[in-house]
Amino acid sequence: MKTKNLILVLVAVLGIAVGIYFLRPKPLHGTVIQSPEPSYDFTLTGANGDVSLSDYRGKIVLIYFGYTFCPDICPATLGNVTAALKKIGSKADDVQLIMISVDPGRDTPEKLAKYVAHFHPSFVGITGTKEEVDTVTSLYGIFYEIKQGSTATDYLIDHTATLMAIDRDGYLKLVFPFGVTADDIADDLKYMLRQ
Amino acid sequence: MNKPLLNGIYGILAVVMASAFAFKVFQPIQVLPRMQLAPAYSLLDQNNEPFTSEATRGQFTIYTFTYTHCAEPCYNINETIQEVQSRLNEVQLDGIPVSFVTVSIDPDRDTPEVLNTYANSIGADTNVWTFATTTNKTLLKTIIGSGFETYYEEKGDGNFTFDPAFVLVDGWGIVRAEYRYSTEVSNADRILRHLGVLADEVRNSKGTTKLAYEAAHLFLCYAP
User: Fold this and answer.
1) What is the CATH number of the domain that holds A56?
2) What is the ipTM of this complex?
3) Does the CB of B52 have a partner CB in chain A at under 8 Å?
4) What residues of chain A, 48 to 107, have a C-beta less than 8 Å from chain B?
5) Is residue A16 part of a domain?
6) pTM for the whole thing?
7) Cα dist. B22→B25, B40, B59 in Å?
């Protein structure tokens, strides 16, 4: 009887440990946002017409602000998203990346479409007038600033390089800092896809 | 499945649920919600210099929205800020700077020169308290109205109807607290307490303790 009780206690302790392990908060790599309201539903222009955030309800949307002349951080981040999508396999069909250009002066919708297609066939690139882009960047906490070069069209743009994840219902859930790895993005996407 | 094993499973589930319930009820750790991203902006400050949201990164920032022609005491906005400033030593901030930004909703009259005169007239320490606005009224409405979700409207007689809100933003540009006049009058005690809660999280939310803080967010253990 004593042995039986001891086994029961051991099973209980083990069970509690396992329960706590599986019920513990998932340590996500992005910063979790608990917004009570859906994210701002922008409408900008893509190569195939208008694109709104709400067009992708039901999918997880990754939003990245960048520009096609971006020398380093944009391709690095988009490359990491591409690698993350490969890691999650067929579930990638439920994830949509939208790149919003902060360079409406040079990035046409067609140019953006060609640029993002280099990274993944599903990626969408959109832009708008400066006023439209300024509204969207401001409301997504993205600061950008033109650093003038030697000619009017030769310039770089400093911009906030975060990657944002919007859930299936249109709520901002995660903000990844610049430098987030493909593994970390994939890990968090898997978690969001299970929700 | 035999009865003792079933009872054991029920027992384990009960303990786990009781632990979660106890965490929620007793709230051993309190946090402030990560409500939304604060809007990005580029304004002109009281020195006629660009003032951008990037300048506030790494700091706790308290935003207010008003105009210099607002009849005093104008909801005690300035008095509340000055009280918070004077009592910051009551909070263990571990060197995290706290800055204050007052955005004018009246760019027609509140030019940088007017803002500078106003700041001097109320004895504001402009090293930590910035007064700014932009003449782009559409963008100003986007920043204040949509970004900070703070209502204001020109009445046509030189006055404004507005929500004298305070908004607390953390060093990552995330809105962590809002103090709305319509629901709860802003007061220095509450703002100082919240600054302390934020500083505690920055200081302690590392390693395994970070899990406890994430649990506090998950269980909505928000500081009152």
Assistant:
1) 3.40.30.10
2) 0.85
3) yes
4) none
5) no
6) 0.87
7) 5, 39, 33
